[in-house]
Design brief:
inorganic pyrophosphatase (n-terminal core); Diaminopimelate Epimerase, Chain A, domain 1; 2 domains; six-stranded parallel sheet; six-stranded mixed sheet; 12 helices
């Protein structure tokens, strides 16, 4: 992240000059947006600043162990300060109902690692080479000469491991591994306990709904594309919630023949959240951008408002075209 020295200096000045901050996490919050925002909140607390975290969705149960998670508030009960920092948000649409806090802010900044981020804030610290936004926040601690305590370490660790598939994805960086090694050496995190909470504690409802989706997988393009679909009615029939769907797209991708995994989940408003994962070949970020979404080469997503049949046919056609492009480029 050496190439972003100027951006770090701008963010540091932004923080030091302000007194009260609103931190924005993205909709359908994952471990990185929450872990990064919470770690940043702990940093602001140490500096004697006021800080709140706003998210349009509640903190998923599996992330409630992170110190400070109870301070994450919904847009309807938030204060809204003059200085706003978006955390792990590739674009403003990811704020959901909290977008008004960004639009009304006097000063805005963005800390992110998505290559599709257009630089929508007044100050933008975007480092696509980072494994997770949490890695950037950890670097921010270092550059501000602020020690990472146990609370911040648990949050940073969560952000890194959840965005790297528990350190197994190709986006896992040497820097990320060094950060975690340092935390372990200093006994700042109990990786066994945190990993149990994230990966080894599964709600019964999640197990049932995941089993339903996986037993109804559609294989397209000769098996190269796997598609899982879940409607609102099916979700509710298993007593499951949206957070119980996290990780299903990874299961689709993990099917041996699949090169691009897709999970399509219907939202309460009738729209469809399309999650994409690639394995070995295919840039799914390229597909997501076409639909107003974003993400990374191997993990991306977007929201579609067409009929389900159209959503499916579109993604089959575009995934096939992406795989063909890759084959021709070899």
């Amino acid at each position: 992240m050496n190439g972003n020295a100027h951006n770090f200096d701008q963010i540091i000045a932004f923080i030091r000059e302000g007194e009260s901050f609103t931190l924005l996490s993205h909709i359908s919050p994952d471990g990185d947006t929450l872990g990064s925002a919470l770690a940043l909140m702990h940093l602001l607390d140490k500096l004697g600043k006021k800080a709140e975290i706003i998210c349009s969705n509640p903190v998923p149960k599996i992330y409630s162990y992170m110190p400070g998670s109870s301070r994450v508030t919904m847009p309807e009960t938030a204060v809204g300060y003059a200085s706003v920092i978006s955390v792990d948000c590739a674009d403003v649409a990811r704020f959901g109902r909290a977008i008004r806090f960004f639009e009304q802010a006097e000063r805005t900044a963005s800390i992110d690692h998505h290559i599709t981020n257009p630089g929508f804030a007044g100050i933008n610290l975007v480092a696509p080479e980072a494994s997770a936004t949490a890695e950037i926040v950890c670097e921010l601690y270092k550059r501000m000469d602020m020690p990472v305590d146990e609370a911040a370490a648990a949050c940073i660790y969560t952000g890194i491991v959840t965005d790297t598939g528990n350190l197994s994805y190709s986006n896992t960086t040497p820097a990320a591994l060094r950060i975690i090694a340092d935390f372990v050496e200093k006994k700042l995190v109990d990786i066994t306990e945190i990993n149990r909470k994230i990966y080894r504690t599964v709600a019964y409802e999640k197990t049932r709904v995941q089993g339903f989706v996986m037993s109804n997988i559609r294989l397209e393009c000769g098996g190269d594309v796997g598609i899982g679909i879940l409607t609102q009615g099916q979700l509710h029939s298993y007593g499951a919630s949206n957070e119980d769907c996290e990780g299903i797209v990874d299961c689709v991708r993990d099917i041996d023949c699949v090169k691009i995994g897709v999970f399509i989940r219907e939202g309460a408003d009738g729209s469809f959240k399309v999650s994409l994962r690639s394995k070995g070949v295919g840039d799914v970020g390229r597909i997501a951008i076409v639909h107003g979404g974003g993400g990374h080469e191997k993990a991306a997503g977007y929201t579609a408002h067409e009929a389900l049949s159209t959503v499916v046919s579109d993604i089959v056609r575009e995934a096939e075209a992406e795989l063909k492009r890759c084959a021709e480029a070899e």
